[in-house]
Amino acid sequence: MTIIKKGSAIYHALGKKAKASVSTETGALKDQPYGFNTRFEDEPGTNPEELIAAAHASCFTMALSFALEGEGYKEGKLQTSAAVSLDKDGDGFAVSKSALTLKAQVEGIDGDEFERIAQSAKANCPISKLLNTDITLEYTLNQ
Predict the structure, then answer these.
(1) Together in a domain, 54 and 110
(2) What is the mean predicted confidence (pLDDT) over 82-107?
(3) How far apart are CA 128 and CA 60, in angstroms?
(4) Beta partners for 83?
(5) 3-class SS string, the chain
(6) Number of folded domains that form the chain
(7) Does residue 59 share a domain with residue 32?
(8) Whole domain around residue 34: which residue ranges?
(9) Region of residue 15 (phi > 0: left; psi between -120 and 50: alpha; otherwise: beta)
(10) How far is CA 77 from CA 52, 62, 64, 118, 125, in A?
(11) Residues with Cβ < 8 Å from 4, sequence gap 6 or more?
């Protein structure tokens, strides 16, 4: 089975002064501004790294939720953020890291079992597999 999801981007003009936007097929993003200024100068809008961070946080959290349920856990709350690092790489840039930070509340789980399940979810969520970069996970459990 293959699932295909689509996104699109448009640049009006070229370079730093361009007006650009990004959209998703679902409409969750529709003509959302992005470009040099939103990526490097904190102008309002989005940027590819922010979108990757949101995708990674949501993918990992979903994978962990299903993995915990598969191990028999019934109640919990998972809250994840991801910080994607963009670093100078020669003449260009490269994503060098995605740092996941998780706050987890899971009834009845011990630390060792949670660590095993969380590390597996980190390694096996589709976005983790897509990213060719260092992926870290820090978490607090039941605090």
Answers:
(1) yes
(2) 96
(3) 8
(4) 99
(5) CCCCCCEEEEEECCHHHCEEEEEECCCCCCCEEECHHHHHCCCCCECHHHHHHHHHHHHHHHHHHHHHHHCCCCCEEEEEEEEEEEEEECCEEEEEEEEEEEEEEECCCCHHHHHHHHHHHHHHCHHHHHCCCEEEEEEEECC
(6) 2
(7) no
(8) 7-40
(9) left
(10) 22, 11, 11, 13, 18
(11) none
Q: Mean per-residue pLDDT for 72-96?
A: 96
In this predicted structure, the answer to whether residue 17 has a pLDDT above a threshold of 90 is no
Exposure letters 24-46 (e unless 16+ CB within 10 A, then b): eeeeebeebebbebbbeeeeebb
Tokens 């990674």 sit at which residue?
A: 56
pLDDT at 16 exceeding the cut of 90: no
Residues 55 and 36 in one domain: no
Check: CB of residue 63 under 8 Å from CB of residue 121.
yes
Q: Are residues 35 and 56 in the same domain?
A: no
Residue 100 has pLDDT above 90, yes or no: yes
